[in-house]
């Protein structure tokens, strides 16, 4: 039986961000293909271990040599040695492309697979502000590791065709497989009350997203240009670390802010619609897939819908301007619809549940 070693970013101790949810999906899908007993995992970070100031200083130094935080020449050499007995090394983040390079340089005879959560060069370009002094260093490291992943991997997987095209343009390598964001279905039994509720004439809108530049910028834009021009609309903001914007100048007292929510199901069921005003980024947005799973009405930008295939008029609405968001939300107010959007749920089950994407991995892993 095929033996697989997975290289992951971190062992999360609390609420997982979108990328780690995707990593968990990768782990479960690979377990289902080769068997759990044939899979081992190495975590680059363990959140339960406290890092000292000296650890951060060393990390910055290694950054100059294209080792992302948590990696060092010694650590990468150790990983390469531990990988030798495995048939496949699945590098679950192209930021660790230097591991793929070391594996090939060390004579590893197995198969190296790199999974691109994003094109990291594009992702960090959106994440790092232009005025931050460390931006050039981070961008160089991300660029180098994307390149290593393309050059030294036997197979690469991207979330969508857009990222594959960007990799082709930047590094001359297309994806060998495209496997979109997928979720394990944890919402198979909504109550009759949830299924039969109609949207309110004073709707509750839910913005879901961790504290991250593109999320904060999108929320700020929405509050200033859309929310403050609507009447009788409630806005809930929820996400890991979002307490950091509690005192932001664009936040108003009537916005309900929730950070590090352990169970999002009640929030999804309370919301009349999801709003996803995201304008920058790479990969696919996990929050979009999660919203489809919960059968929500979704008003979202092109970026938030990137990589998803659906009739977005039925899902809710594709909105890229303030006028489009306002028109769609006001239409929902004037024409109530079920809070539980059966079409969104059907799209999830058909295209974005874990079961629906397993075969795309099978061609790479087996």
Q: Can you summarize this structure?
A:
This protein is of the alpha/beta class and 366 residues long. The protein has 16 helices and 12 strands. Helix 11 links the parallel strand 10 and strand 11.
**Share of residues in strands:** 15-25%
Global geometry? globular
CATH topology of the largest domain: Rossmann fold
In the CATH hierarchy, the architecture of the largest domain is 3-Layer(aba) Sandwich
CATH level 1 name of the largest domain: Alpha Beta
**C-alpha end-to-end distance:** 9 Å
Rg over CA atoms, rounded to whole Å, is 21 Å
| Sheet with the most strands, sense and barrel status | 6 strands, parallel
Q: pLDDT below 50 for ≥5 consecutive residues: which ranges?
A: none
- In the CATH hierarchy, what is the superfamily of the largest domain? Glycogen Phosphorylase B
How many discrete structural domains?
2
Question: How much helical structure, as a percent, in the residues?
Answer: 40-55%
Could you give the count of β-strands? 12
- Mean pLDDT rating: 92
Q: How many H/I helices?
A: 16
- Give the strand order, joined by hyphens, for the main sheet: 2-1-3-4-5-6
Helix/strand class:
alpha/beta
